[in-house]
Structure of Death on curing protein, Doc toxin:
Amino acid sequence: MANYRFYPAADQRQDEIWGYTCEQWGEAQAEKYIRGLHSHIQELADRKRLWKSLPGTLIVPPDLDIDVFFSRYEHHYLFFRELSDGAIGVMSILHEAMDIPVRLGEDLGQIDRGKRPLKL
């Protein structure tokens, strides 16, 4: 079973999702959504054939020389990369209504400045 880790920006987005969902629909729904999100990420880690490649010219900063992949979970898009140990590094989690190019550029810019994924 492959594993996954979150970069700080994605970890922060996850906290925001929890807070918003908890405030709007209660703690039980927030827990259900986050558990489902983690199950989806684990499925991605276990099944590389589910990965969709993000065109590098779309949003990835030119000096960030990595392949970026994405997947959708309910109302959120996950952006991730494969780490050197084969794990998934979740770089960003963005709601479908957000300005995705701008927000993703901000999150990937943090990675470009040397931030590393958190340990699980």
